[in-house]
TrEMBL record:
It comes from the Bacteria. It comes from Adhaeribacter pallidiroseus. GO terms for biological process: transmembrane transport. Keywords: Membrane, Transmembrane, Transmembrane helix. The chain crosses the membrane at residues 31-50. InterPro entries: Iron_permease_Fet4 (IPR007251). This is Low affinity iron permease family protein.
Amino acid sequence: MKIAEDKRPSKFAVFFENFAGKITWASGKPVSFLAAFGFVLIWGITGPLFHFSDTWQLVINTVTSIVTFLMVF
């Protein structure tokens, strides 16, 4: 029976794990919530400026979809 060799993670795996850890840490801070709230507030305030257009709605839909996807996966 062959004994499993000691495998070290690749440099990319180490980099990605560190990067993901920092993003997780940063996204849990109050300033992250305030930034997201501020973005939504500014988006809402600019509604009349853009006449509540389809493009205006598409901005918030696209941004929230991308952020949700990245946070989940």
